[in-house]
Amino acid sequence: AAKADGRGVSRFFRDEMLAGAQKRKRLEDDLRRALGEEEFHLVYQPVVSTKDQRIVGYEALLRWEHPTRGLVSPADFVPVAEECGMIEAIGEWVLRTACAEAAKWPAQVRIAVNVSPIQFANPALPAIVTSAIASSGIAASRLELEITESVFVNDDAFSSQMFKTLKGIGVRLALDDFGTGYSSLGYLRKAPFDKIKIDQSFVRGAIQAGNRNAAIIKAIVTLADTLGMETTAEGVEQQDEITLIRDLGCSHIQGFVYGRPARAEDARAQLASGGADAGGAKPVGHRVSR
Ligand code: C2E
Ligand code: MG
Ligand code: MG
Ligand code: MG
């Protein structure tokens, strides 16, 4: 009986794995077609200044509308795109599309774009960034590239040179999801980040008394201030968290409390409703979505 059970179990796992591999293969094939079929679009989430509650920019977030599966989360397909080599082409499309969209906004509103470690490891990235900026016509200083800590596991000399080259182009650099990776403070010494994005896991529960997250956020902010970097608290969902985050000294807030990621036309309408004097920035009370 034990033997039969063993066979049963191994066959179960083999079937499961086979189904997994086939599913995976199909996802890869679908991904390869998705760009040409125009199944991707970007949504934009506002980044708000804690000082005056105005929108300083938007983060572009990728969405895939699969013909049969519906909306697939980037958390599910970006890793697959990274592994099957599609992230280069998709990432370039994201950069070009986001810059072109930002060109329609008031000139001081920034656009943040997520850059995969795979893109970052490509020596052609600076040329792609330069081209996206040039063809859109936006100032390089309006583009912020969001990079995660994982780029630091790669060749140190290469990373340093890449940072230097990108800064030379004039774009801004943000360290995304700070505190979740192999956090080493060593790289903050070398990498010329303009901003640290504090991961939303630290914002969760920070409002509760006795929660350690607030202390951690405060420490990160102190560090960033000392290094001359801005800070964005990610994933702020509640009104009372806004006050806390501001009191902890974060310069910016991004989260559902100020708006969920929305279609380009919604972001444009949001900016337009800010009024001429606001220059595209917009008081909190006028937010269009939650
Ligand atoms: P991220 O860059 O850290 O983006 C922030 C994520 O937090 C987004 O998820 C956003 O929708 C979500 N978020 C924002 N505010 C809140 C909030 O108040 N509460 C909660 N619960 N969530 C909030 P999304 O759009 O699903 O993206 C997930 C991740 O996928 C991104 O994390 C980023 O790592 C990756 N990603 C998205 N677009 C791209 C892209 O164009 N290229 C690359 N390489 N990665 C991307
Ligand atoms: Mg990001
Ligand atoms: Mg993040
Ligand atoms: Mg993330």
Automatic annotation (TrEMBL):
<protein>
    <submittedName>
        <fullName>Cyclic di-GMP phosphodiesterase Gmr</fullName>
    </submittedName>
</protein>
<feature type="domain" description="EAL">
    <location>
        <begin position="24"/>
        <end position="275"/>
    </location>
</feature>
